[in-house]
Write a structure and sequence with these properties.
With 302 residues, this protein is of the alpha/beta class. The protein has a single domain, classed as TIM Barrel (Alpha-Beta Barrel). 35% of the residues lie in helices and 19% in strands. The protein has an eight-stranded parallel barrel with strand order 3-4-7-8-9-10-15-16, surrounded by six helices. A four-stranded antiparallel sheet has the order 5-6-14-11, with no helix packed on it. Helix 6 packs across helix 7 and helix 8 packs across helix 10. The longest helix is centred in the last third of the chain and has 16 residues. The protein is globular and about 50 Å long. The model has no long low-confidence stretch (mean pLDDT 95).
């Protein structure tokens, strides 16, 4: 009922761990599979190790989660080791994820991470909380998206997905530029930029001041982004952002998504959030007489 084909690979269900949620160790990624995921995305990797931002880096609220972890990761060499370990533990589809400071470095990183047994490669050009280090996210610029997509496509040995920002007002045009430059898929979306202030301390909650907002509050924004992108491109979409329930998941597919990136739902519903979502999807599908996800994909556009 939930089996999904994405760029030639079969997923038992469309739920994949969103990048940045469960780290980069093979064991932690495998735990997500045990808890109901159909695939996993590794935390975004850089060429050299990064410690990220000083604490506090995250906080959860009733309807949203905010973080400014700062893309902390162990660097490409260690990440490749862990990705190999994951494939020894599981044979489910594995999505790599990289970020870099220039189109040329993105190309270099793509070549390196393809040394690991990844099935797909997600290109993070849209993190909202590292502007001090990297400047404005590349996801706002058509020219930058074209250059990065071409550089990565030239070096990657697996299909690539460009991860876009909900802060880009013309995200559908950006997606179309990525497609024209060789992208095999679009990931929509990254977190949206935001902040919280402690009124008693009279200071921002996060050390970085601003951070990325995820969770249920992001869902209607992400849903519209996927809806708009679906009308502009023919390549598949990984719908990501605030999916917390089975109803959210089905709505995202009706907007046009093929795979569903799920992350902060773990904070709101526990480690088995993935299985809870797929169970709820199946209940609704049985009630509505839906036999498979292909028959409802993009149906909100009719």
């Amino acid at each position: 009922m939930l089996t999904t084909n994405f760029l030639g690979k079969s997923f038992t269900n469309p739920i994949v761990v969103a990048s940045g949620i469960l780290g980069v160790t093979g064991a932690s990624l495998n735990n997500a599979i045990k808890n109901g995921c159909g695939g996993v995305t590794v935390k975004s990797i850089s060429k050299e190790p990064r410690t990220g931002h000083p604490n506090p880096t995250m906080n959860g609220y009733e309807h949203f989660f905010i973080n400014a972890v700062g893309l902390s990761n162990p660097g490409i060499d260690k990440a490749i080791e862990e990705l190999k370990k994951f494939k020894e533990l599981s044979d489910v589809p594995l999505l790599g994820s990289i970020f870099a400071g220039t189109p040329e470095e993105f190309g270099e990183m793509a070549e390196r991470i393809c040394e690991a047994p990844i099935d797909f490669l997600e290109i993070d050009i849209s993190c909202p909380n590292v502007s001090k280090e990297f400047g404005d996210p590349f996801a706002y610029s058509i020219s930058a998206v074209e250059k990065i997509t071409k550089a990565v496509k030239e070096k990657s040995t697996v299909p690539i997905s460009i991860k876009l920002s909900p802060n880009a007002w013309n995200i559908d045009t950006i997606a179309k530029a990525a497609e024209a430059s060789g992208a095999d898929a679009i990931t929509a979306v990254n977190t949206v930029s935001g902040m919280m202030i402690d009124v008693r301390a009279r200071r921002p909650i996060l050390h970085n001041k601003q951070g990325g907002v995820s969770g249920p509050a992001l869902f209607p924004i992400a849903l519209k982004c996927v809806y708009d992108i679906y009308k502009s491109v023919k390549i598949p979409i990984i719908g990501t952002g605030g999916i917390t329930t089975g109803e959210d998941a089905l709505a995202m597919i009706m907007a046009g998504a093929t795979l569903l990136g799920v992350g902060s739902a773990v904070y709101f519903r526990g480690a088995d959030a993935f299985k809870k979502i797929t169970d709820e999807m199946e209940v609704i599908m049985k009630e509505e007489g839906i036999k498979n996800l292909d028959e409802i994909r993009g149906s909100a556009h009719l």
